[in-house]
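Here is an idea for our session: we take a single protein and study its fold together. Which protein we use is up to you, so please pick one and set it down. Once you have written the record down, we can walk along the chain together:
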Amino acid sequence: MATKKQKLKELSWQTVGVDGWLAFAFVCLLVVGTVMVASSSVAVAEKNTGDAFYYLKRHILFIGVGLMLSYMVMHIPSQWMDRLSRPMLILAVVALILVLVPGIGVTVNGAQRWLNLGVSRFQVVEAVKLALIAALASYVVHHFKSIQQSMLGVLKPLLGVAFMAFLLLLQPDFGSAALLLIITFVMIYIAGARYRDVGVLGLLASTGMAVIAWAEPYRVKRLTNFQDPWQDPFGDGFQLVQALIAVGRGEFGGVGIGASIQKLFYLPEAHTDFIFAVYAEEMGFVGVLLLVCLFLLLVFRMFKVSKEAFENGNDFGGFLCTGVAVWIALQAVLSMGVNLGILPTKGLTLPFISSGGSAIMMNIIAMAVVFRVSFENKRMHFHSNATSPQKSEVKA
């Protein structure tokens, strides 16, 4: 007689499937991103490469690579992800160190954030985000009591993240360092850490990041100029002023796809960090509202998958999905906030939308991890329904 484990293995993807609304939001965001990369990058691609669709082709290529890698990731059980989480994190830290080695790390616009892989460049921090989330998920599952009962249990993962943040600050990449710290605090808090421990360590971490931010003149300018970029519209406030002009031109219904003026060399980084401003210009308030709703749907369904994993006893899968949801939600909010002038410039892309190789690829792989947990949830539910005894009908 087949065991429960063998029966669960027999249930395939075709039989069980994944969260439909999660897949819908994911596909819609990929489509919107592809259209916006095509629209926002035409002028700069023509100028830099002579091929108006260079960045679009590159974007589609990395989506394809991401989907192929995701197919393999979706066939890795969450139990194996738990076992692989620590080696993944070690490799990520080694990669962060290699980025700083001359000849291996690649410097672009004064920042040394990429590894030279020969055929392409890879931004290591994108892989670090997922590796850290997996390692944190494994840590909180295996150290529940320590996290909930002592400050030392909370401090241990923070020390590791602080070291990674230090390596990121050497690149420099202040935005990603802050993002990793916030993700860590959120996951530890969800794991049940005491308010006192989270509060004290959070205050120390935020104070340290504030001191680091004010230690560099260019960061100070970012922190002050976003409050009133119009005081220096042709200098330090230029990029944000152009972004706000783009958002304002969009009004309610937008100027139409492809009709943006700001992308024509007025707005720097129009196809990467500031693609949301171009989107707002072309799609207007209605389009922005639709995009926000897609992100809300995606994040809400990821939290739902996380909740179901906890209910099924898959704590690692639950924390893993929670971490990915926090990552995507937080980065989306930060990116949109920067484009709208609500937050200082941080150099963070908009997930699934901005042009980029390693970023879009790792976003897709992160979603594959969530889809794997969703599949395991549905497989468990499907098996439970199939094996539950049917109530016999009682005839009068």
User: Anything to note?
Assistant: The mean pLDDT is 84. The first strand starts at residue 105 and ends at 108.
